[in-house]
Amino acid sequence: MNRTLHLAIVVGLVAALVGAAPAVAPAPIIYTRWQNFGPREGLPPGRVFCLALQGHRVWAGTENGLAYYRHGRWKTLTSKDGLVQQAVLSLAPDPQTGDLWIGTFGGVSQYSGGVFHNYTQLNSGLVNNVVYGIAIEGRTLWFATAAGVSRFDPDTQEWTTYTQENAPMGDPWGYGVTVAPGRVLVAMWGSGILEYNQRGRYWRPFTNPNQSPEIVLFRNQGLVNDVVSSVSYDRATQWWWAGTYFGLSGYDGRDWHNYLASDSGLISNFINKVHARGAAVWICTNRGLNEFEPARRRWIVYRRQGAGTEVELVNGAGRVAARRKTATAPASAYLYDVAFQPGRLWVATAQGVSLGLNPQPLFKKEN
Amino acid sequence: MLWRLRLIGIGLLLSGLSGAQLPGGCAPTPAAAHLRYANMPLAAVAFRHFAKPYHEWYLSPETLRLDRTPNQVTGESDRAPQQVAIGLLGPIKKSARGHGFGLAMLEGAQLAVEQANAKGGFHLRSGGAGIPYVLRLHNDAALWGSSANEIADMVFRQHVWAMLGSINAVSTHVALRVALKVGLPIVNTGTSDPTLTETRVPWLLREFPDDRQQGYALANVIFRRRKLTRIAVLVSVSRYGRLGIREFVNVARRAGAPPVAELEYDPAQTNPNSAARLARIIAATHPQAVVLWGGPRGAAVQLRALRAAHIQAAVFGGSRLCTQRFLQAAGAAANGLVVTCALDPTRTDPRWRAFRREFEQRYHRLPDAYAARAYDGMNILIGAIQRGGLSRPGIMEALKNYEMKGYCGVSGPSFFDYTLNDIAPVPVARVEHRQFKFEKISGGQ
Predict the structure, then answer these.
(1) How far away is chain B from the Cα of A352, in angstroms, using its nearest Cα?
(2) Looking at the 3D structure of chain A, how many domains does it have?
(3) What distances in angstroms separate CA A287 from CA A241, A304, B135, B248, B281, one per listed residue?
(4) Which domain holds residue B377?
(5) By residue range, what is the domain housing residue A217?
(6) Tell me: the pLDDT tens digits for B172-213?
(7) Which of A43, A163, B202, B239 is the most exposed, fewest CB within 10 Å of its CB?
C-alpha cells in the first residue's frame, strides 16, 4: 500500500512538473529533398505560373499550355486541344462541379468533362482577356483581369464588371483574387486591396495610407504598398496576407503587420504569391521560398545555393537562429506558386515544377 | 516681413532642385550621389516635418533585380534568325487617341531602325552577315486593356525580342505587367506617368521626363525663381491630369504654398461658357500663378477662357502643351505661357542638327519631342540588343547598365536613376509671339 502510495505521489509530482514546464513549440517541418520536373518529364519548357490540386491530380499552368501530373509523367493540353490560349496564368478547381477554370493571356477556359468551353472579351462579358486570378465562391466566379474585375454566374450566364467606374479603384488593374466568408478580396496593381462585401454589395479599399510610394513611413502603417501582386485568406486564423513587390503585409482584422527583407526573415521584398495555410503563410519570391508563422515569430527560409538548398530558421527580429543545407533544390529560385498535399510541397518555378519531399524536423535542437 | 521669410523659406526648401547633382554635359557620367529619390527637392519630401521614414525605396542598386532565370530563351543557340523583331505599341492608327504623338513616335523609331540596318543590322557574336531589325507595329487603342492583348500577340505569335511604347500611361502599365510575366524588355519614350517606374518591375527603361520631374521644374520656376506663392491649379479630368499634377501640388503644399484653388475641367468640353465659369472662380481667388495640366485641345480652351477673364496671373503647364498643336489651338492666348518640354529643338549641338536634317529628309517635316525621344529610345534598345544578344534577359541586363548613368541622345542628355527613369533636367520654354522660347533652366539648371 505504502509503495503504491509513494509511486502515486512520485508520478503525480512528475506529472505536475511536466505540466508546469514551459510549452515547447513543435519543431518546424522542413522539406529536405526536391524533385524537379521539366521537359524531360513531359512538362513544356519555360515558366510555370500557377498550380492547382484536384483530388490526386496536380495541374500546372505554364507559358506553353496546361499540364497535369499522372503516374510520374506530365501531359500537356494546349490550344490544339481547345485551350483558349497557351499561357496559363491562373487556375481554380470548382469543388462542386469538378470543373477546372483556367485564366490565360487570351481569355478563360472552363475545362469540364474533358472539353474546353472558352470565354473571351469578344464572346462573353469578361472584361479583359488577360486573367491573372480566379476565385470561386459558391456558384459564383471572380476573375481579376488586366482591365477590371469580372463576376460570373455560370448558371445564369450573367456577367458583372467592376472597374474604376463602379468600385473604389484608382485604376482597374486586377492581379489576384481570393474569397473569405461573405467577402471577396482582390489584389490590385496600384490600388491596394479591395474587399467586396457580399451581403452589403459594396467595396471597401485598403491602401497604403502615406500615399508616397517611395517610403514606408511607419513599419505597421497599414498596407505596405499599393502594388499588390497577391492576396490570400485563412479561415482558421482569419488573417489576410498581401504580397507586394515592396514586402509582405498581414491583416488580423484589426491591425496591419508589415515585414520587409531588412527587418525579418523575408527572403525578398519582391513577392509573386502568398498562400495562407493555417498558422503559417507561404511566400513565393524572386529569390526563394519562405514559410512564416506570425504567432511564433518564426521564419523558414529556403534559398537555392548551387544544386542544393540553404534552409534557415530565422527569429522575429530577422536573426538567423540556425542553418542547414540539403543536397537538392527547387529548379529555380524564382517562384510563382505553391500547392500542398500530405507530406508534399509542389512549387511552380521559372524553370518547371518542383516537388518538396521528405519533411523532417530539421531544426529540432534549435527550436 | 513674414511674407519675405516665407519666400526665403520656400527658396531654401527648393534648393534640392539645383541641377548640380546631375550631369550637365552630354556625356555618359558616372553615378552621382543622390540623397533623395528622383533628385527630389527637400520641399517635396513627404512627412519630413513629422517623421523619418521607416524605409525608403528606389535608392540602391537593389531597386530592380533582374533574375535571368525567368527566361532562358535565346535565339543564338541554333540557327541565326532571318530578322530581329522589335515590337512597337502606340496610337499609330488615325482613329486612336493621341495619334499625332503616336505617329511621331513611330517615325522616330523607324528612322533609328533604318539607320541601324544601313549599318548592317544585328551582328551575332559568332560572326556572319548582319541580321536586319524589323518593327512589328501594334496600334494602341487604349480601351479595356487592349494593350495586354497586343503584347500577348507580340510575345506569343511574333516572338519579338523587346518593345518600344506606348504613350498612354494605362496601356503602358498593362504592358508592363505582361512584360513581367513573360520577361519582355520595354523602352518607353512617351509616357510621363511617374508611377510607371515605381513598381520595381525590372523590365522597363523610360527615356522621357516624367510628371514628377516636370512638377519639380515648374515648382523651381514658380516658387524659387519667380517667387510666386498664390497658386491656382486647373486640371483635366483624366488620369494624365490627376497623376500629372500630383507631385507639383505636393511640392506646393509641403513648401508652404498650398494651391488657393484646385479645379477640374472636362477635356472633351469645348463649350466656352463652361470654361468661362471656371475662369471666373479662379479669378475670384486672385492667384499669382495658374498651373494648367491637360492635353493640348482641352487646355487651349481653358487658357483662352483665362485670358478672356483678364486674369493677370502667369500661367504654367506641362509638356503636352509644349507642342505646335497646342499653339495652334490656343492662338494668341498662349503668349506668356511657361511650359515644361520633353525637348529643346532650338539647341544647336551637332547631334541634334544632324538628326533634324535626317528626319526632315526622310519625312519632310521637323521632328518633335515624341519623334526625337523615340529615336533615342530605339537607339538605346538596339544598342542593348547588340550588347545583350538575342536573349530577353540579356537585353534587359544591357538596359539595366544605364542605372545611374547618362545617355547622350538627340533629345539632349538623359540620366537614369535606380528605377531606370530619366531624371535629367527638364527644358522649360515661354511662349512669345506664338513661339516657344527656351530658357536655360529646368529641374533646375
Answers:
(1) 10
(2) 1
(3) 19, 8, 34, 37, 55
(4) 84-208+348-401
(5) 42-301+342-347
(6) 998 999 899 989 999 999 999 999 999 999 999 999 999 999
(7) B239
